[in-house]
Design goal:
This protein has 194 residues and is mostly helical. The longest helix has 24 residues.
Length: 194
Amino acid sequence: MSFLFEDFKGWKALCEKENVPLYVPVLQYEIRQKGAVEEDIWNGLSNAYQVMKEAVQTGLTEDMTSHSGMIKNGAKKVAQNKTIVLSKEFQTLISSALAAKEVNSCMGRVVAAPTAGASGILPGVLTTMQSIHQIDDKKIHEALLISAGIALILEQKASLAGAVGGCQAETGSAAAMASGSIVYCLGGSIDQVF
């Protein structure tokens, strides 16, 4: 039987007991609970991250005007704005997150992470962080597993669905997933990730 992601304390205890990295119990969960094959999981993560990168690129380079007219190339406007508020890196992160979100709003291909409504946050954070820190894709894939574990706990303790918890459930969950991913990729401890 695999760990069922009921809380962070149990996840940490399992990692320490088995002396494994934080992503391993999530990988084991996918194998044992869902009958997945490890190679297929890694390939799926690679494909998902590629879709995230493509959504960011599409949103920053193609016309992103929605049928309603509410979306009108906002990501490109942020990316090209000459006024830097906090830093160029922060501007890149915001424009990247908006880009992927706009692709979703224009009915493009995105990864629901954890939902389509929050589909820009994790891609924006991961692609920007990868660019700044030259993080390899394998580490990003491990971080995606960790973010999935975080989402599993949030799903049990609160909600990921906007219909249940409002937009904060979607975007707050995505922000928590992205935050954990950042800390993991930059070498943080389990406690720091959590």
